[in-house]
Amino acid sequence: MTKQDFIEKLEQLTEAESGTFTEKTVLGETARWDSLIIVGFMAMVDESMGFAPSPKDIAKCKTIGDLLTIVSSGIKG
Predict the structure, then answer these.
(1) What is the mean pLDDT of residues 33-60?
(2) Residues with Cβ within 8 Å of residue 67, at least 6 apart in sequence
(3) How many whole angstroms separate alpha carbon 9 and alpha carbon 13?
(4) Which among 12, 46, 44, 47 has a CA at the least distance from the CA of 31?
(5) The pTM is what?
(6) What is the pLDDT of residue 77?
(7) Superfamily of chain region 3-74
């Protein structure tokens, strides 16, 4: 999965318009980010990359770039 693929999947998960997210997008402000989305995010990563990030790591994330950092082992390019 590339960074762009990851961002597009997040847009789908949060029902955001395609092309609206960047690595600087703030979770909870621009991006819909609640407990259901977090569970969906964990499932998405597990299905796509074969591991689930810890809830503690996710809770520390403030931006989409932060999410990319915690899943970086599954990101290409």
Answers:
(1) 93
(2) 6, 10, 27, 41, 58, 61
(3) 6
(4) 12
(5) 0.90
(6) 63
(7) ACP-like (1.10.1200.10)
Q: How far apart are CA 57 and CA 77, in angstroms?
A: 22
Predicted pLDDT of residue 8: 96
Encoded tokens for 56: 């503690």
| Alpha carbons 28 and 52: distance in angstroms, whole number | 21
Q: What band does 56 get if pLDDT is binned at 50, 70 and 90?
A: very high
From residue 35, alpha-carbon distances to 3, 39, 55, 58 in Å are 23, 6, 10, 11
Segment holding 17, helix H or strand E = none
How long a stretch of residues is the chain? 77
